[in-house]
Amino acid sequence: MSTPVDSRIDIIAELSTSSVSGPNQEEDKTEESYKPTWLDAEANEHFVGYVEIPECEEPLLKKSESRFLLFPVQYSELWEMYKKAEASFWTAEEIDLSKDLRDWEHRMNDNERFFISRVLAFFAAADGIVNENLVLRFSKKVQVAEARCFYGFQIMMENIHSETYTLLLQTYIKDPLQRDFLFHAMESIPCIKRKAKWALRWIESEESAFGERVVAFAAVEGIFFSGSFASIFWMRKRGLMPGLTFSNELISRDEGMHTEFACLVFKSLKRRPHPTIVERIISDAVSIEQEFLTDALPVNLIGMNAELMCRYIEFVADRLLVALGNRKFYNATNPFDFMEMISLEGKTNFFEKRVSEYGKAAVRHSDEASRGQTSRIL
């Protein structure tokens, strides 16, 4: 006899498999029904927490005229994340690409150029997808001013990320036809199309609960980006492409904050998706990312070990699961010492450590007055 969780898992599986095709991209995969790896016997519904609350009555989502007011701060942790993001502002013009072209033309081989161009093409498309979700879904759904401030700033930063990736491609790729091919990667490159379609399904699905969508886009920014970030940091370790790797520091820092905020929003929900559903969404993203970087666009093209990359993605996924309140699923360790700085575990993250020395100190401390405001978590 199936349980409500099993029924919800079927919906998640349909979302995952109906639009995700295999490595040859000719037809969709057909997966076996998902079998939960562990299930809390006491949580036998689709959700955990205050399971009887309808989504429209969720405090974060319930319409209120207080959504137009910033003070007094009601969700202090969400507000602090907004101020943290605000202090990390940067622009594409601050990236110096003057030395990259020499490395691109004279120090990198064809495989490395192929790999990096595809990674940049994916990033350029992915930031637009993240923004579409923020505009069409999260910004409309969430009624809390503090979260809306963060989403508004995130939209701006995703635009800057997209602009940066576009400038990188324009700098490195001189052939107009090849450049156009990469700019339309969602249609022209099957392995990128697969990742994009998975994310787009979570925007378009009317069956998905808000909490499920939050988890899915935490996976997009926390898992789909993780392997590509690691591959670019690998280039930095080899002393290549200073402009590219510097922008990677800034963008990976931003995406780390976006993922952290998603986890904070998720944990602020009174009614959350069952841990088994969370696990399934994350494990689906892991499978897609592992296939992307070990088969469709293998990291061995740039001299990285594909097996270690798979383990790294599992390590990142475990950290995300824990941040979402789940148990670890893979129990993986971090195989890349050079990636410690951007793992979700990072106690000293880019913002505090200021690896790239980008932080608007005046902005970061300007909210001291607001901290004196009466805060109340609904």
From TrEMBL:
A single GO BP: deoxyribonucleotide biosynthetic process
PROSITE patterns: RIBORED_SMALL (PS00368)
Region (Disordered): 1-34
SUPFAM superfamilies found in the cross-reference section: Ferritin-like
InterPro entries: Ferritin-like_SF, RNR-like, RNR_small, RNR_small_AS, RNR_small_fam
Annotated GO MF terms: oxidoreductase activity
One family name in Pfam for this protein: Ribonuc_red_sm
Polar residues: bias regions: 15-24
Family statement drawn from the similarity comment of this UniProt entry: Belongs to the ribonucleoside diphosphate reductase small chain family.
Protein name, as recorded: Uncharacterized protein
